[in-house]
Amino acid sequence: MDIEISKKHALAFALPNTHPVKKVDANLIIKQGIYVYFLLLIFEGALRKWFLPGLSGPLLIIRDPVAIWLVFISWRRGILRANIYLSSIVVIGFISIFTSLLLGHGNLIVTLYGARILLFHFPLIFIIGNVFNRADLIKAGKIMLWISIPMTVLLVMQFYSPQSAWVNRGVGGDMKGAGYNGALGYSRPPGTFSFTTGVTMFYSLLAPYIFYFWLYPKNVNRLLLIVSTLALLAAIPLSISRGLFFQVLLTAIFTILATFRKPQYIGKLILVIVSTFVAFLVLSQTSTFQRSTEAFTTRLTTASRDEGGVKGTLVRRQIGGLLLALVGAPDFNPPFFGWGIGMGTNVGGQLLGGGSGKMYLIAEGEWERTIGELGYLFGLTVIFIRLGLSLKFLIGSYKRLVAGDLLPWLLLSYAILEVSQGNWAQPTSLGFSVFVGGLVLASINSPVTNKGALEGYDKSLNLNVS
């Protein structure tokens, strides 16, 4: 019997493998987790407003379990490797837990809510940067294009519907609506997000992909690109967002600067300009676009007048806020270890404010909030880490541009502000900062493999900055 069994086994090993095992990417499950994180970022607000309003509180941190799992599994597989940025942030995160409980506000829930930003979300930048390849970057862009079409349709419905309508329902089913002050009686629509800032961030990330795909149209369906471009142009006035307008303008400037470095892009850039002009003419014939444009221009004019023009807007909202964090306001005098991590977040304001409705117990500005929570020593360290990482992105993206790769440079047009000074106290802003930072890092680290995608690309260039 034993001899017969042995012969069968030998025969089995001798036969060719008729059912070969398909080789699975070791990082596939991590990539899937990243896409889950991204989709939850886009549709978290929809769950909190429309589908599960009774769970709007817990759903605020719906991406946190995904982030924790991604950090844990990436660390076990050696994908999340130590570097000066990551190590410093994690050390500060752990120290801030003890200083917050012992010397700060002392609230455990607020402390953990604030520490999660540094311990679990910030590391995702390096996880995405290490596992995403060029195909994943292109795939993410195509997903953005597809989502932009129904998102813009939703913006139109919200823009022309009263705040009491179902599409404008607020978080937790709030019948007062989720819209924000706009102009001419129209409110700023929030799309699928909990608040209107999500719309600004979504289309700000879409814009670099729109410009990239017009320069390299072989990577995307032309009809999809045209419709998505129309969606972006329509979203600017529909959102009544100056931030989105300036961000798209910044991406356009980055594209023009790229043509100075690579003159072969000039012809394609002209194509982008002509296509945009034609799309604008098409949209201008519709009453929907005309009304939203009127509301947007009114908002732009009124806000600029109140803040002293575009110069006043930029100085007050950007440079002024950053300088205020460094020099401090007259009543801004945090202790050495700060008032405690998490205190400057929306959740921290609600919990520590005793339900008084006060959202910002420290400051609305990101740098000032960071210093107020952590103190000048650790707060400035976090700020310099973010600035240092942004500088790395700038250098790496420029080197890839010189080598003929435009994608990192265009993604940088949005990431450089989000990573350096994006509002991490707000969950949606934190999510977009992390995701676009990871995309830039991945675009710098991953080689271009598809033939004909680039002209004159130097594949020998190694710019891994993880």
Keyword list:
mainly alpha, 18 helices, 68% helix, 466 residues, disordered N terminus, two-stranded antiparallel sheet
How would you summarize this macromolecular structure in one to three sentences?
The protein has 466 residues and is mainly alpha-helical. 68% of the residues lie in helices and 2% in strands. A two-stranded antiparallel sheet has the order 1-2.
What does this structure look like?
With 466 residues, the chain is mainly α. The protein has one domain (40-445). The chain has 18 helices and 2 strands. Helix 8 packs across helix 9. The longest helix has 38 residues, at 366-403. The chain starts with a helix and ends in a 21-residue tail after the last helix. Mean pLDDT is 85; it is low at 1-5, 7-24 and 455-463.
Please state how the strands of the largest beta sheet are arranged side by side.
1-2
What's the pLDDT, averaged over the residues? 85
Rg measurement, Å = 24 Å
Helix and strand run: HHHHHHHHEEHHHHHHHHHH
Number of domains: 1
Set down the secondary structure blueprint:
Blueprint: H1 2-14, H2 28-51, H3 56-59, H4 64-76, H5 84-102, H6 108-121, H7 124-131, H8 134-160, E1 180-183, E2 186-188, H9 197-215, H10 222-239, H11 242-261, H12 266-284, H13 287-306, H14 309-327, H15 346-352, H16 366-403, H17 407-421, H18 427-445
